[in-house]
Amino acid sequence: MSTKSYIWWYWYNRYLKSEQWEQKALKVRRRDKFRCRKCGERGWIVHHLTYERVGKEHMRDLITVCDACHKRLHGGPS
Fold it and tell me: In principle, which of 47, 54, 57, 70 could form an S-S bond with 61, CB 3.0–4.6 Å?
């Protein structure tokens, strides 16, 4: 992993623990009625559709997903 990549991931993981992210994620979950936008099941994970504006995301950049769909979105087994 390059130094730039390491620094970005370090910052990103800290951001995901911030009050700013928690407030934004709660707005997304409420908008989506706590349902996965992929399968309709109960969802809690807020997924970035793009990383272009991380830290300054637009609401359209984020969706609520369940754990299984989140794994599939990142190429893992469900």
Answer: 57
CA angle in degrees (0–180, nearest 5) for 31-35-41: 170
Three-state helix/strand/coil letters over the chain: CCHHHHHHHHHHHHHCCCHHHHHHHHHHHHHCCCECCCCCCECCEEEECCCCCCCCCCHHHEEEECHHHHHHHCCCCC
37, 43 Cβ separation under 8 angstroms? yes
- Widest distance between CA atoms in the chain: 39
Q: Global pTM?
A: 0.87
Work out the percent of the chain whose per-residue pLDDT is above 90. 83
